[in-house]
Design a protein that fits this description.
This protein has 15 helices and no strands. It has 450 residues and is mainly α.
Length: 450
């Protein structure tokens, strides 16, 4: 039996991992449909521009900026599985309002932003709980393999979701496509609710919470202390610090790219929702390939070197997509494929983007969860995720404005250049030598928080 087969068998024996994997796959499939459907909804149904796409993206991630750090403290104080269930149900309800209002003729950009903000709050809580729950289900030596298998399922969803979304949007219109995601979150809620795993109510505390008004003040002081502890852990750690900072830059650049990709494809390339969905599906194919080799590459090169390489590759992918409008035939696009070659160049960029993201995520998540103790998992995850999403809140509208003012190609090239420069800086840090089996890093983590 190979190491790969042995790890697969061990994961199957982890109580609850199968349901957790299925729940993640179900919600991921629906989410990729919503990503395309909402973008088409804004550009075509509501006649929006890149700046408005950026505003809706910012609304989705705004809760991370406002309450993300507090959510991390909450997750480390309570059982994580019930939070995941409630969050999935809230996601389903928020998404369901979009087709309901569209059918009633009352849907507008403002409500889409409100729905995305509620959806973002629920996913903030659910993702923080889920990422902190996984290390309770899976032993730490198997975390990278566990993430890789979840990433593979997500990659299949990424490949099939946009293509299906393009067909559904073309046939029924974008609002109804969002219903698929609502159903997927309800499915996820049922699967997580039926996981049979006893988990502690909360991490141990050094001070009592107390009762009454004084107890409330003590609890608030405790939350502030917990938030500060999480910040110190992430930004005081020799390898988590450069990983976190570079991730913030990556998310800001990704927000710029995300604000202009759909308008560029639909307007400059002349693609239809269906052909855009097929091009985006190439990212799913790449992500599946990347996730399939992520663990092996991480062990051979080291998690740090692989993360640096894939961040550089992401910049190359955006640069390739920026070239696509330049190969549109003279006189404009010909048909729904943008002249064929333009669509192919755009799809190649999507393929490379998915490949890099698929190879990176399992190693990044596995490494940071391996070096972080259980009682800090929630705060570590939400500290990094909150500031990542805060970068989106700021960069998405600015990226849309840049795209509208200077051109979509310029905005994409700016994003590509900045993320590549950040990878160079990261290569000069301690992260370059980070490995999942790095006993020195584990010893440093233990000394920081025994």
């Amino acid at each position: 039996m190979t190491d790969h087969d042995a790890e697969a068998q061990l994961l199957r024996e982890c109580v609850g991992y199968g349901r957790l994997w299925t729940a993640a796959a179900a919600s991921a499939f629906g989410t990729y449909i919503t990503v395309l459907a909402v973008q088409v909804l804004i550009v075509q149904t509501l006649d929006g521009d890149a700046a408005e796409v950026g505003l809706v993206n910012a609304a989705r991630w705004l809760p991370y900026l406002l309450v993300g750090l507090l959510v991390g403290a909450l997750v480390d104080r309570v059982r994580r599985r019930p939070l995941m269930v409630v969050a999935d149900v809230a996601c389903a309800l928020a998404l369901a309002t979009i087709p309901v209002l569209a059918l009633a003729g009352h849907l507008n950009l403002g409500w889409v932003m409100v729905a995305m903000a509620v959806f973002g709050t629920a996913t903030l809580i659910g993702d923080a709980a889920s990422q902190s729950f996984l290390p309770r289900v899976v032993p730490r030596p198997l975390l990278s393999s566990a993430h890789a298998r979840i990433d593979q399922a997500g990659a299949v969803a990424q490949g099939g979701g946009p293509a299906l979304a393009g067909a559904v949007v073309s046939l029924l219109g974008p609002p109804l496509a969002v219903l698929v995601d609502a159903v997927s979150y309800l499915t996820s809620a049922v699967l997580v609710a039926t996981i049979r795993l006893a988990e502690p109510a909360s991490a141990e505390r050094d001070e009592p919470q107390g009762r009454g008004r004084g107890g409330a003040r003590t609890a608030l002081r405790g939350v502030g202390r917990d938030v500060a502890e999480g910040l110190r852990w992430v930004y005081g750690h020799p390898t988590l610090r450069p990983l976190a900072i570079s991730s913030h830059v990556w998310f800001a650049c990704s927000a710029v790219a995300g604000a202009v990709l759909a308008p560029m494809a639909l307007r400059d390339l002349g693609l239809t929702p269906a052909t855009l969905g097929l091009a985006t599906a190439a990212a799913g194919v790449g992500a599946l390939a990347g996730a399939s080799v992520a663990v092996r590459l991480g062990r051979r090169w080291g998690a740090g070197r692989l993360i640096i390489a894939t961040r550089t590759g992401t910049g190359v992918a955006w640069a390739v997509m920026a070239i696509a409008p330049s190969v549109v035939p003279a006189g404009g696009s010909t048909g729904p494929w943008g002249g064929g070659l333009a669509w192919a160049v755009f799809a190649v960029g999507q393929l490379l983007l998915g490949l890099c993201m698929g190879a990176e995520n399992a190693n990044e998540m596995g490494y940071r969860q391996t070096v972080t103790p259980d009682r800090l998992q929630g705060r570590m995850n939400t500290t990094m995720r909150s500031l990542n999403r805060a970068a989106i809140v700021v960069a998405a509208p600015l990226g849309g404005l840049l795209g509208d003012a200077a051109g979509y190609q310029v905005a994409l090239m700016v994003a590509a250049g900045v993320v590549a420069a950040a990878a160079v800086v990261m290569a000069a840090s301690a992260l370059r030598g980070a490995r999942l089996d790095d006993h020195h890093a584990l010893a440093v983590s233990a000394s920081m928080h025994p």
